[in-house]
Amino acid sequence: MSTVLPAREASASEGDAPDVRDLVAISRPDVDEPAADQANQYVTFAVAGEMFAVSIAPVQEIIRMPQVASLPLAPRALDGLASLRGRVLPIVNLRRLFGCAERANDDATRALVIHIGQPLGFVVDRVASVVTIEPAEIESADAIQTIVAVDYLKGVIRRPRADGGHDMLLSIDFERLVEGQFNAIGAAQRGERSGAARRTANDAMQDVEDVRVDELRLVSFTVADQEYALDIAEVQEIVQLPASVNELLRSPGHVLGVISLRQRLLPLVSLRALFGLPPLAYSEQQRIVVTSLPGGLDVGLVTDSVKEVLSVPRSQADAMPGMLAGEEQLQEISSICRLEDGKRLVSIIAADKLLRLPAIGAALHAARHARIDNAAQENRDMDMNPNGEMDETGGAPDDDIQVVIFRLGAEEFGVPIMSVQEIVRVPETLTRVPRTPNFVEGVINLRGTVLPVIDQRGRLGMPAMERNDRQRIMVYLLGGMRTGFIVDSVAEVLRIPRGRIVPAPMMSEEQSHLISRVANLEGDKRLVMLIDPAHLLQGPEIQAVGQIGASPADATVRRIAATAA
What we know:
Elements: E1 2-3, E2 26-27, E3 41-47, E4 50-55, E5 59-64, E6 78-84, E7 87-93, H1 94-98, E8 110-116, E9 118-124, E10 126-132, E11 138-139, E12 153-160, E13 166-172, H2 174-181, H3 183-189, H4 201-207, H5 209-213, E14 215-223, E15 226-231, E16 235-240, E17 255-260, E18 265-270, H6 271-274, E19 287-292, E20 298-303, E21 305-313, E22 317-319, H7 322-325, E23 333-339, E24 344-349, H8 351-354, H9 358-368, H10 374-382, E25 400-408, E26 411-416, E27 422-425, E28 440-446, E29 449-455, H11 456-459, E30 472-478, E31 481-487, E32 489-497, E33 501-503, H12 509-514, E34 517-521, E35 526-530, H13 539-546, H14 555-564
Parallel strand pairs: 4-13, 7-9, 15-24, 18-20, 26-35, 29-31
Antiparallel strand pairs: 1-2, 3-4, 3-10, 5-8, 6-7, 8-9, 11-12, 12-13, 14-15, 14-21, 16-19, 17-18, 19-20, 22-23, 23-24, 25-26, 25-32, 27-30, 28-29, 30-31, 33-34, 34-35
């Protein structure tokens, strides 16, 4: 066990311990059994003009305020989640918890990391010192009037001053405070965590298995204003095309080069060049669709943009016309999907045929035998991601899960890719119809069916925002009915190693069901909260949504939605 203290000492009064306003960390291998020399040591700190003390035994660290990601559906006193050396740390605002006026953090603000069944960070105005207090100095707090309820105090410590007066320290019982204010944490400490919060991505996939049998699940993308698609099961990942790519000497023209992606060297093939189309200047909309070859080898297909995730009845996909099927340059197109009454045609690419093309084989050959320069080699060794940021998410593909990343405000969320039925644009107007639940924003016509649409922000207790072009509707199958949720934007499809996924702290029952896991990525600089779509709506809500447009009495719903299509 070690206590890290600053070099200078306090000058307040004789007998005071060293000043710890700049204290950085208190590290110990075991916080459950206090060491003998710590039994009477306390960390003192200030909140809203009051001085408090806590036994040093459960205090793991004292840190400067970290970057915090807001956790939806959590109690108001929670600032959010922070990443601290590979673990997810809830940050609790003590001013808010005590009902005091809030203030902006400053250089003196610190977070006390205290182990109470799980590590929690408590934001305090400043940390004062580490002092030694004898048990006889602790008095009852029954008659004390303070900003903290007496039930959450262990006692009062009166310390004599040089002028004959006394300083009063309030000793907080953090375990009782947390259990009283955060019911979910209290339940976890008592071993009552709900089994529903442990649902896995496989559980969510099972919910939609029957529906997927009669449908095609496609990721659509554009190449020279023409829309193509791959089966979603063949898409390993979708990432942004970096501004610079490591070029390969003596490689075919359709091979753009290689990048290092998650501890592997990924060859990039330009679909424009492969299809004999003119090149496109770099743009931020360009995406790499990563798909796998037999034997586990991957190749990145460079597209102009990725458009949507689609669920299409197989009856709307026609085989390639016979007179064209024999054309060598069209052999990779397996079928053509008719959407929007035939006004929109999507060419479905057969990945197995595409990947057997000599051009793809040439790309892999060039990648295997490429002599990349020292800088590229160093990037691979450090496993840089396409945007040039450190990536520590390496792992075998079998240990990864695929998630669709979307954003709400500054926060990132992920859902299992196989739970997403579709991702579509938000129409200019949502049709509000009679007798629909208040939480339903409206309905749209999605290929002849009524799709209830719910604002994801509202479901997570976040403030509403104006409609814009970046918003998308993510469609899930809930209670046997497709339901759409509006998100601020869809960022990417990402493979996340299971080793980077940790249980989310339990701050409320609703949150623990919906967001039970968190992905800790990019060297603790990126937190992605993983949502279980099965818990986006509760039982009565699912029933209410399921009744929309389902009965003859709701024919008005279908008529209005069809008119608005």
